[in-house]
Amino acid sequence: MERTTLVQFIRVQEKKADGATGEFTRLMNEILVAGKIISLAVNKAGIGEDILGLTGEVNVQGEEVQKLDEYANNTLLKIIGQSGCVSAIISEECDEAIQFKSGPGPRKYIFAMDPLDGSSNIDVNVSIGTIFSIYRGPEGSDDVEDDAILQAGMNQVAAGYIIYGSSTMFVYTTGQGVHGFTLDPELGEFFLSHPDIKIPDKGKQYSTNEGNQVKWLPEQKALIKYFKETDPETERPYSLRYIGSLVADFHRTLLKGGLFMYPGDQSNPEGKLRYAFEAAPLSFIVETAGGLGSTGKERILDIRPTHIHQRVPLFIGSREDVLTAEKILRENS
Ligand code: AHM
Ligand code: MG
What we know:
Elements: H1 6-16, H2 23-44, E1 54-58, E2 64-66, H3 67-81, E3 86-91, E4 98-99, E5 109-117, E6 128-136, H4 146-149, E7 158-164, E8 168-173, E9 178-184, E10 189-194, E11 205-207, H5 218-228, E12 239-240, H6 246-256, E13 259-262, H7 275-288, E14 292-294, E15 314-317, H8 319-331
Parallel strand pairs: 3-5, 11-12, 11-13
Antiparallel strand pairs: 1-2, 3-4, 5-6, 6-7, 7-8, 8-9, 9-10, 13-15, 14-15
C-alpha cells in the first residue's frame, strides 16, 4: 500500500499555495524533527534517561518544572530558533519572547508553543502533547515589536499539535482542512492516517474539571446541570470524560465530538489556559474542522491578546455544543 508521509504532504500542499517560497515547508519540517525527538524522550521516560521528575525550578506560571518540560522547550527552541525561519519564539515556559536577530534565512515567521502540555501527567503514563502556532512576522526585521508578537488568533498561518499517546500523532491545519499523521515507530516517519478531519456537529460528552465546582459561577453550574439532565431528544445526559491533559482531551473531542471547557471561576476569572499557547491554536484547528472555540461569550480567534501569557476561559468542540453552552451561560448570568 502506498502511504503519504507528512513531508510529502506538506510539500504538495505548499506547491498548491500561491507565491510559496518553501520557507513554510522548511519550518514544518523542523517542527516534525523536534516532535520525533521529544516523542522518543517521552517514550523512554523512566528507563535509564535522567529525564523523569522535577528540575526543582518553578516556571513563569508558578508551576514546578518537569525535566521533560525543560527538555521539550530546549529542543524546540534550538531546532526552530536555528532554522532561520523565525524572528521570534514565544513559549509557555519562557517569561519573554525570544528574538532571533541573525542567522540564515528570511526569518519570516513568529512561532508560539506549549512545548509539553499536561506535564503533571508525565510521571503517570498519560498522554501529553506539544501545541504550536505560526504567525507571519515582519520579514527580516531585527527587532520584532509586541504588535507583531501579540496577534489575534485569526491571523494564524498554521497551528497544530503532537500527541504523545498510545501512538504519536501530528495534527495540523493551515486553514485548508485538518490533517492527522501517525508516527510509524519502526520507520521514524509520520504517515497520513486521518485526512481532512471533521468534528461531529454535536457530541455526547462533556469534559471539565468538576472538582472546581465549588468555585464556579452560577452560569457554569447551570451548564453542567444541563448536560446531566435526562432528555432523549438531545441525547442527554452526556458522559463525562476528563483526562486533565489538554491535548488528549482536545484530540478526543475533535474526533468524537462534544465539549471541552476550562471556565473562569471566582478566584480565576480568566480560567487557566493561555490564549497564545493553547486556546488560539486549538480554536483554529477546531474551526477548520467545523467546530467552534469560544470564551463562553465571544469567539476566541477574534481576541487580540495584550500579553504573552494571557489566560482565557475556553469552551471548545462541536458547533452545536458550543452554541448551547454560550446560550445557557448567557441565560444564567
Ligand atoms: P500545563 O500547560 O502547565 O501542562 O497546564 C495545562 C493543563 C492542561 O493540559 C489541562 O487541560 C489543564 O492543565 C488541567 O488543569 P486542571 O488540573 O486544573 O484540571
Ligand atoms: Mg499547557
